[in-house]
Amino acid sequence: MSADTVSVTFDVYRFQPGKEAVPRYQRYTLDLTPHTPVLTGLLRIRDEVDPSLGLRYSCRSAICGSCAMQINSKSRLACETQVGPEVERHGRIVVEPMLNQSVLRDLIVDQSPFWREYEKIEPHLKLDPRRPMPAGKATPMTPAQVDRFQGTPRCIACAACYSACPAVSSDPAFPGPMALAKLYRFAVDPRDAAREDRLVRIQTEGLWLCLRCHLCTEACPKDVRPSERIRDLKEMAIAVQGATEHGSKHAVGFKRNIREGGTLNEMKLVRQTFGIFGMLPQLPHGLKIWRKKPEVARRPHPIEGQEELEGIYRALDREGDR
Amino acid sequence: MKLAYYPGCVAKESGRELDLSTRWVCQALGIEIAEFPKFSCCGSGFIDESNELLNIAINARNLAIAEAAGLDLMTVCSTCQGMLSLAKVRMEDAAVRAKVDAALKPLGIDYRGTSKVTHLLRVLVEDVGLEAIRAKVKRPLAGLKVGAFYGCHLLRPADEMRWESPEEPHAFEDLLAALGAEPVLYRGRVMCCGFPIQFVKPETAGRIAGRQILDAKDHGADAMATPCPLCHISMDAYQGPAAKLVGRPLDMPIFHLPQLVALAFGASPKELGFSRHLVSPEAALAKVPPAAR
Predict the structure, then answer these.
(1) CB pair distance less than 8 Å for A218 and B52
(2) Do B40 and A309 touch (CB under 8 A)?
(3) Which residues of B touch A228 (CB under 8 A)?
(4) Which chain B positions have a beta carbon within 8 Å of A282's beta carbon?
(5) Does A288 score more than 70 pLDDT?
(6) Residues near B127 by beta carbon (within 8 Å), at least 6 away in sequence
(7) Nearest to B103 among A225, A315, A321 (CB)
(8) What percent of chain A has pLDDT over 70?
(9) Do B104 and A301 touch (CB under 8 A)?
(10) Contact B152 A282 (CB under 8 A)
(11) Is B232 helix (H, G, I), strand (E, B) or coil?
């Protein structure tokens, strides 16, 4: 090992479904400079040590989004993750395929569900046929209109967010952070004529399954901040259609609930979300909770200064959704 | 040390054992807590979903109450911590601030952004300090393997919460070790408890909660502890349905953070509201040796 290199241990996930019964981890040790990208290390392993290692990559410059994988349990781009800090923090580099997608071979996952969700949001401009774009001319947008896209045009569809998302891993009805961030991008595009349709559709197609845990925002290598754009979509959807789903009823019900007493009336909120009959399936377990915590069924003490809160609501809450 | 105590809705009602144990710990450590009946709910992330600006304004009002008393504000809930911190960050944007001020000023509310928003966990680790905590321990939680569960909004988004690494936090484990317990590291400790969709799609929420509990269990935890009463609801009050959804018995006692601190400081379990938990912590408590005489 020369003075400017460090010994780097890679523990790489290896699995060929159909040929092998269980996955295994294979250890490789290389001398690398600390600034070497993990991808470069993996390519050296493939080219110099073990040509059977399967991985996806292309641009090596954090542009194409092909080389997302789990590096020490975090979904990241292998091309922009340097080996030095990983070894310093973890002692070694554990490389695994992304989560929430089945493994095809080693670090290569089947991305078809991810792309299917993307196709479902119809990621293209839908123009009003009565107002076609002038042929051969650009449609100018103001800087303020462009700002509304926020970080979404930066998305490179690497699926790091999809891999990190607990809603994706628990419910196939959730489209995933990337698809929703892309949907936002079209929902704020002033040239798009389908804005309202898009927002109405997504209310019943998984929008409200987002847990706002922000794991996607942490995983994103491009600071797209999907969780914050999903929040924006929720507010936009309520503004267009009102509260039609459990999720939007809960959000709007919560807002009204706090207006009344300043502090949460738990039982009333459940009724606001599910309705009287919708509450019935919750009842048996609800009784178990009530026996231990009778306050759930009590009206909470109102806060002092409720009139200040009312003043804030009057100034800032749109009446349309009351 | 004097702090404005922001209990949040749950600790005042269905999660009273959190409020009880918080008061016990603060008294033991000489932390003076000032109470403000004017505090409203933080919106719990739900008002943020329906009206972002309203959510910021409600929390700017809460912050202004602490500011007027010249105190930093202490939460005992990851979600309250997240919402109040988020309001403070958003109010750094001049355009947002102008809109919110236009609503608050006519009501005589003057938000200045001078109070820090902190959580009991941060107060214990950063302000009281682990050395002082260790000195107060009368009944070390020796032999108790505890999986810390942070709750999303204490950590993320990290550039807005401005505290520990969202992937590798250690304050909670440091505190548990200072109490004599054995912290258990598992991936789920920084994951989501499922609570935000408990009332959207309970079966999905339950699968998510169940998965994190199983992860802690498979890493050898006797119990879990959380600084968030919403995580507590998801993982204690709804553990029964979660166990059915993941198809394995869980039997995992879930402690509120200050309950374990108080226990190690010598509080009697009777004072800490354990009877209000849906999953009995008896078996875990039995593992803790009695205090030395």
Answers:
(1) no
(2) yes
(3) 157
(4) 202
(5) yes
(6) B1, B118
(7) A315
(8) 98
(9) no
(10) no
(11) helix
Q: DSSP states of A16-63 as a string?
A: -BTTBSS-EEEEEEEEE-TT-BHHHHHHHIIIII-TT-----S-SSSS
Closest by Cβ to A312, choosing from B58, B208, B275: B58
Give buried/exposed letters for B20-30 (b at 16+ CB in 10 A, else e): bbbbbbbebbe
Mean pLDDT rounded to a whole number for chain B: 96
Give how far the C-alpha of residue A273 lies from the chain's centroid of Cα atoms, to the nearest Å.
Answer: 24
pLDDT, tens digit (0-9, with 9 covering 90-100), for B129-175: 999 999 999 999 999 999 999 999 999 999 999 999 999 999 999 99
Residue from the list A215, A254, A308 with its beta carbon closest to the beta carbon of B109: A308
What is residue A243's predicted lDDT score, i.e. its pLDDT? 92
- Chain B interface, mutation test: which of A72, A293, A314, most B Cβ atoms within 10 Å? A293
Give the three-state DSSP class for B165.
coil
- Reference A263, options B36, B86, B103, B25; nearest CA is B36
* B152 to A217: CB separation less than 8 angstroms, yes or no: no
Residue A193: helix, strand or coil by DSSP?
Answer: coil
Residue of chain A whose Cα is closest to the Cα of B100:
A316
Chain B closest CA to A38's CA: distance in Å? Answer: 19
Quick one: tokens of B209? Answer: 């909660």
Residue type, B117: V
- Residue B263's pLDDT band, with cuts at 50, 70 and 90, is very high
Q: Record the pTM.
A: 0.95
Q: A19 is written with which tokens?
A: 């040929």
Which are the contacts of A119, defined by CB distance < 8 A and separation ≥ 6? Answer: none
CB-based contact A167:A212 (threshold 8 Å): no
Distance CA B212, CA A243 (A): 31
**Cα B35 to Cα A135: distance, rounded to the nearest angstrom:** 66
Per the CB < 8 A criterion, the answer to whether A224 and A152 are in contact is yes
Q: How confident is the model at residue B293 (pLDDT cuts 50, 70, 90)?
A: low
CA distances B95 to A6, A38, B90, Å, are 49, 42, 10
ipTM over 0.90 threshold:
yes
Alpha-carbon distance of B118 to A260, in angstroms, equals: 28
Specify whether the CB–CB gap between A71 and A38 falls below 8 A.
Answer: yes
End-to-end CA distance of chain B: 30
User: Contact B32/B71 with Cβ under 8 angstroms?
Assistant: no
**Amino acid at position A101, single letter:** Q
pLDDT at A299: 84
CA distance B285 to B267: 12
The helix or strand, by DSSP H or E, that contains position A314, with its residue range, turns out to be: helix A306-316
Tokens, residue A9: 């241990």
